[in-house]
Amino acid sequence: MVSSQRKRELRRRFDTDRLRPLLRVAVDGVMAVEATGAVLLDLRRPRPAALPPGSVTAVIKTFQRPRQVRRLVRSIRRVQPDLPILVVDDNETPSPVKGADLLAMPYNSGISAGRNAALAQIGTPFFLLLDDDFVFTRRTAVAPAVEYLMAHPDVDIVGGRVVNLPDFSSHDYSRIVLGVRQGTDAVPVGTPLHGLPVYAKVANFFVGRTDTVRTVGWAEDLKVMEHQEFFSRAWGTLTTVYDDGFAVLHARNPFDRASPERRENMASASVGLSQRRRGAGAG
Predict the structure, then answer these.
(1) What is the pLDDT of residues 177-214, one digit of tens each?
(2) What is the reported pTM?
(3) Fewer beta carbons under 10 A from the terminal one: N or C of the chain?
(4) What are the phi and psi torsion angles at 60 (to 5°)?
(5) Across 140-145, average pLDDT
């Protein structure tokens, strides 16, 4: 498997103005073939168990990716037809997505504000956090994670594995070090807890307990790059475990050029996170 550093080197070498459109089309084509293959393989797997009624809502924050969010909702409806879905959209003109409810936000509000608004609106005790470029398969079985949380009130988050297309790689969060932690140590990382290991951080793909995650929330000055900051503040307040069998596909094309808004949000978030680190170091 190609290392992350090698991938970055290859991307820098080939991601030029001349090659980028061709590479974008080529990668989209490969991922489309792989996604179709996953659907065909699904025919050999049992359909995931039905969800406990009224238990969980899928939350999808989207911005400037209408094709991706429609693809995700279609894949959810194919695999989990009864899962309520809330799409949080802060485009200039938020558009309804067939099969989902829409929460329209002010333009370019950002990921953090959108997720906080979603958790303030939903009425289910649990929520499923999703990025808009994910794709469900029958391995995206939500019911076991929900039932685990129902059975174990001392756990707040069950994270799953994100499988990146086109190379089917997955990031290993088992040894993640959060750096500055704003809570106190609770259950040590790696401790088996009711059959699943405790993690400091998981991907932006998890089932969470709505009321306790709402108390931590996402920092609304960070329109992007909110992930590490959220888990740093959650440490010692929320208990997170990881289930390797709970998986979703991630169809992000590395040759999609970021919009000016996204680039500006990244620059602003980088400054904000640097200031936080300096402030923590001074304390």
Answers:
(1) 776 555 566 788 999 999 999 999 999 999 999 999 99
(2) 0.88
(3) C
(4) -125, 115
(5) 96
The Cα–Cα gap between 64 and 93 comes to 10
Contacts by 50-53, CB closer than 8 A, 24 or more apart: 50/82, 50/143, 51/80, 51/82, 51/83, 51/142, 51/143, 51/146, 52/143, 52/146, 52/147, 52/150
What is the helix (H) or strand (E) element at residue 262, kind and residue range?
helix 260-282
129 neighbors 216 (Cβ within 8 angstroms): no
184 found inside a domain: yes
- Residue 51, domain extent: 11-282
Residue type, 226: E
Nearest to 133 by CA among 103, 164, 106: 164
Per-residue pLDDT tens over the stretch 94-110 = 999 999 999 999 999 99
Specify the 3-state DSSP secondary structure of 29: helix
CATH value at residue 84: 3.90.550.10
**Residue 222: inside a domain, yes or no?**
yes
